[in-house]
Write a structure and sequence with these properties.
Radius of gyration: 18 Å
Structural class: alpha/beta
Distance between the termini: 13 Å
Shape: globular
Number of strands: 8
Number of helices: 11
Length: 309
């Protein structure tokens, strides 16, 4: 058994979540079962859902099988799509916020304000959104073993790292971590409003500080830094947010900082086959099955490379 291991699961939409489950299952097939080996799991955005799945106690084979099965509509759920802003409008606003921000704190605060502003239209869909998130979680309770789910306080722009001791329902924490401003409403928890943890960092790998071995799965890590084209629903929904390296919240900076502290860090990003399978719209649920299959194949290959010192 490998000890002192942190598994970091980054954001990347529906396809990114499926790819991460595929990778975890493929690694297990190759002899490295991170559902057992990880002493800590950190999940951000789609990675928060993956974290709850990985920590559920369900075998990797069963997790993969569930992703490869057609989704089941939650009982009693309204089949009409909840209100949202046009995708082009959301990403245009995100580009403007990213261009104007002078610091990470400035960007996070502005994105929080955007989320709060959008609530006037999006709030009617809050109940449906929570039910959708709940339907994706194998267990409604926090796991016994350590897990962190990230979000950003929409009022202050500060990072929130929820765990089983935070007094927050797991469903609410994951719903908050996946609440992308402009597309879904902010999430109310104990009188505060929260938005997607990926607004702060796509991975938030710095939360694995102090662990000797860190494995980072980053669905967006291999993508271009170029902002998305107007009107596009990009593979990297946060790629339009400008984050200069000096802010220290990009993956390369987080990994460098971990390594300087003495951590052995392994980063897995989608290979060419996985990128093709995930498509140009990682938010599209139709890309989940091909992404999971490609992730499983890649994970089996990565198992020969990922080692712990």
């Amino acid at each position: 058994m490998v000890h002192n291991v942190a598994l970091v699961l980054g954001g990347g939409g529906a396809a990114g979540n499926a790819w991460e489950i595929g990778i975890v299952a493929g690694l297990a097939e190759g002899g490295l079962d991170l559902t057992e080996a990880a002493d800590l799991v950190v999940g951000t955005s789609a990675g928060a859902t993956a974290a709850a799945q990985v920590r559920s106690g369900i075998s990797t084979a069963e997790l993969l099988a569930s992703v490869l099965s057609p989704p089941v509509q939650p009982a009693g759920q309204n089949r009409e799509r909840p209100p949202s802003l046009p995708m082009a409008t959301v990403f245009e606003r995100m580009r403007a916020i990213g261009a104007a921000a002078t610091s990470a704190a400035d960007l996070q605060s502005a994105m929080g304000a955007f989320g709060l502003e959008s609530d006037s239209m999006l709030e009617p869909g809050a109940g449906q959104r929570r039910a959708e998130v709940a339907s994706r979680l194998p267990r409604p309770e926090w796991p016994e073993r350590p897990m962190i789910v990230t979000a950003v306080d929409a009022h202050t722009g500060e990072l929130a790292a929820f765990d089983r001791d935070s007094g927050v329902d797991l469903v609410d924490a994951v719903t908050a971590s996946t609440a992308l401003p402009g597309l879904v409403p902010t999430v109310s928890i104990n009188g505060r409003r929260y938005i997607d943890g990926g607004v702060r960092s796509k991975e938030n790998a710095d939360l694995a500080s102090g662990y000797a071995n860190v494995v980072v799965l980053s669905p967006l890590g291999g993508r271009s830094r170029t902002p998305p084209e107007r009107g596009a629903d990009p593979a990297g929904q946060f790629e339009g947010l400008r984050r200069p390296p000096e802010w220290g919240v990009d993956l390369a900076s987080e990994v460098e900082a971990l390594r300087k502290q003495g951590s052995h860090v392994e980063v897995i990003t989608p290979d060419a086959d996985s990128r093709a399978a995930m498509g140009t719209n990682q938010m599209d649920p139709a890309n989940r099955i091909p992404a999971a299959r490609a992730g499983f194949a890649q994970g089996k290959q990565e198992a020969t490379r990922v080692t712990f010192l």
